[in-house]
Amino acid sequence: MRRTTAACGxxxxxxxxxxxxxxxxxxxxxxxxxxxxxxSFWSTGGDDETAIFQKAADLxxxxxxxxxxxxQTLSWDDAYAKLLAxxxxxxxxxxxxxxxxxxxxxxxRGAMVDLREHGLDALKAQxxxxxxxxxxxxxxxxxxxxxxxxxxxLYYRTDLLxxxxxxxxxxxxxxxxxxxxxxxxxGVDKPYSQDWGNLDWIGYFNYLYQAGGTFYTPDCKPSxxxxxxxxxxxxxxxxxxxxxxxxxxxxxxxxLDTGTALVVGGNWIAKGIDxxxxxxxxxxxxxxxxxxxxxxxxxxGGRAIGVTSFSEHAATGTDxxxxxxxxxxxxxxxEEARKRNLPYIPPRPDKVVDxxxxxxxxxxxxxxxxxxxxxxxxxPGWDESAPDVSxxxxxxxxxxxxxxxxxxxxxxxxxxNAG
Length: 419
Fold this sequence. Notes:
Elements: H1 13-19, E1 37-44, H2 47-63, E2 67-74, H3 79-89, E3 95-99, H4 102-107, H5 129-135, E4 145-146, E5 150-157, H6 158-163, H7 173-185, E6 190-194, H8 201-210, H9 227-241, H10 252-257, E7 260-266, H11 269-276, E8 284-287, E9 299-301, E10 303-307, H12 314-323, H13 327-339, H14 360-371, E11 374-375, H15 382-397, H16 403-417
Helix pairs in contact: 1-3, 2-13, 8-9, 15-16
Protein name: Extracellular solute-binding protein
Keywords: Signal
Signal peptide: 1-26
């Protein structure tokens, strides 16, 4: 399972242009709230995730017998395109979930309900601040709220670290490169690799923010022309070109299983290592990412959930979104997630340790990451820019461009798509 907020790339630009026509549409006539209603919920993810959210939908139905909510799976591969097509045609689901910033893009085109109109901005007090900010439009509109959270961790082989005389995993950039050197000297052929975000903007995100940089200024201007951005990319490039991080993506548990000592991977990896890689049992552990010069910032992913403006059941849909933050909804989701050995972290930081599907020790690592975490930028054009930004970052790693040129070209893409 992989969580990302990136859009599907330049192939969607024509659809995006067409979607602009959705703004300015007359409000959809609303159905009688007392009449029986069936709402469709297009959920981005896998079928197991659809099942856990259907549990919450069924619980809502028990409390509201006139309301039935049917959850339908959209795969990450084509969800953005399908949701954008629905937004363009103003037909489709009542409730959607997808990348954290997607609802901003759809909302700017008139396809989403501003949830503030129904009081859902009150949920801000329960959400992780940076994730809430990521889902909020620059003008303050709330077209979606966080549905769940995901992040990264540093997974490591305790036996291989011991072989190199390391009694703890690295806690800083300098300690990371020093540990790689010691592991190499001890005969460990594969000291370090990255999984989620390898060679794309999510991987760079961690180093950028750990160096004190950002993708955008507070007023949504590209901010990659800074010493912090250059320092972050220089360090990231060196991990590949000088310290041996592989450019080929290897799933984190596979990397650990085949002898990689230190692996950056998504939180969901923790659920399956002991089950899928039984030979690793007792030989691995996890911690937060090494901190950079500005601190220990880690990327926060996840999905946003919102209500379409063409739904005839906007009030009911927003009430269901509010319900998804309730203790009983979270408990139902977590119970089903545990049955399916599925990773799930609720959008409420106060629930991470006692109400996620991870063990308490694993959840505490993620809780520490969330405290200082940052989420994807919610600036105009980011989802359309992300794939090309990744390509320019890759050009520095692969030796096709110097660091300054790669960052300048990425910034041009961001400025162009900002409109």
